[in-house]
User: Fold this.
Amino acid sequence: MKIIGAHVLGPDFLFHNQTIEIRGERIASLQEMATSPTTSQETSCDVVSYEGMKIIPGLIDVHMHGYRGHSCTAEDPDDLIQIAEDLAKEGVTGFAAGISTMSAERMGAATRAAVQASRQLQNQTDKALLLGIHLEGPFLNPQKKGAMDETAIQTPNPETLQRLLDQGQGLIRLITLAPEMPGAEAVIRLAVQKGVTVSMGHTMATYPEAKTAIRLGAARVTHTFNAMRPLGHRDSGILGAALLEDTVQCELIGDLVHVAPEICTLLYRLKGADRMTLISDSCQLAGLRPEELPEDVPIILKDAAYLPNGTLCGSIGTVMTMVRNMVSLGVPLEEAVRMASFNPARDLHCENDLGSIAPGKLANLVVLDDALRVRAVYINGSLVSGVAN
Assistant:
C-alpha cells in the first residue's frame, strides 16, 4: 500500500511531501512525491490519498490512568482492552498503563491484569498497543501524595519492587518514586539494573537529593511542577535539578490547567522539545460526556478532574489534546508531536519500532487536517479509524 498526497512528518521531524510505502505492518520506504508517481499497475486499492493533510507518527501516552469510564487499575484485562480501542480513535496508538498507589494486593492484581491485556492485544491491529506499565508509587512522599491513597504509600524497599517486577513479567517499564525517602537509593539501583526507567515524582526532594538520584540513574521527572517541592530562589529543590540537568526528561500535563500556560512555555524554552514528554495523566472519566458520568464516582469534572476537596486528580483529555494545546502556545507542531511520539517511545525503550515515521518502523500513523483534527489512524499498517480517501 502507498499513501500519497500528504505532508509527512519524517524521521527528522520536519514535514515533507512524501509517499509512504507500507508492506505488512511496517513502513517500507519514504519517497519524495516527484520520484514516486502512481503507475498504471497500481490499483485504487493499492494507493490511498490524503491530499493536503498532515501525517504524523502515532502518539504514545506514558502516563495515563484511564479513559471513558475504564481504569488502568482494574483487575479485569477487558478494561485495558477497551481503553486501547478508545484511544486508537483519538490518535493515541500506544500507551503505558498507569497503576496508582494502592494496597499491595490491588497493585499486584492490576499488574497481572495488564500483563493479560498486553498478551491479548498483541494480535489485535484495531487497538492501541499496550507498551508497558507505569507504576506511580508506592514509594512516594506522603507530603506530596496528591490524589494518592496515603495509607497505601510504602517506605522504599527492593523486595516490594522485585515482587511487582515478578508480577509484571517484563511489562513494567517506568516507576515513579520520591528519591528522598529512606531506602530509595537501593530501589533506584534495582530498577536501573532491571531496565526500568526511574522517574522522580510526588516528592519533597531537595536539589542535592535529586542530584544523587540522577547520579544513580533516575532519568525523568513525573508531571513536572505537580506534586513536588516548589522552585524557590534560595531552595531550588528537585525542579532546579530537573531544569538544569540536560539528561533529565520532564513530563508535562499539557492541559493548561495542571500547569499554567506561561509555565508550560517556560519549561519548553528551558528544556526544549527533545527533553519534554507530553502526557495526559488522564483519569478514568476522561472523554466522557456529562450525561455519561457514573453517579458513584466521587470525581468532579470541570476543566480537569477534581476530588471533592478540590485536589486535582487528572486531566480529561488525551495526549492529542496536549499536542493541540502546546501548538496554541506557539510551539511548532513538529516539536509538539515529537514530545508525544518519539520521546515517550524512548522513555519506554521502544524507539526502534515506534515514535517516528521511518523505514523499518511499525506503520503507526495519524492523519490530521489543518485544524489538527484526527481524520484517520493506522496501527501496524491497518486502518483502524477514519476513512481512506
Notes: The chain has ten helices and 21 strands. The mean pLDDT is 94.
